[in-house]
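ugh ok fine here u go
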Amino acid sequence: MTAKSPKIERQIINHADIERYMAAGRAERSKAVHEALKMVGRGIATLFDLHAVMQKKVSFEPTIKPAPKH
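structure:
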């Protein structure tokens, strides 16, 4: 009996697939960041709207008024 060495089969690395997966990951991450920025922008816009509404509802009158003329 002779010992036969088993044939070692190695998986071939497909660089095109790797590039495609990396590009898809970057696109997903970019989409997530874009959505997060839109949400932050909406929050800031809401704060500005609230501020504008409050300025319309609350009248800011000076606490020191000029003395009436005789």
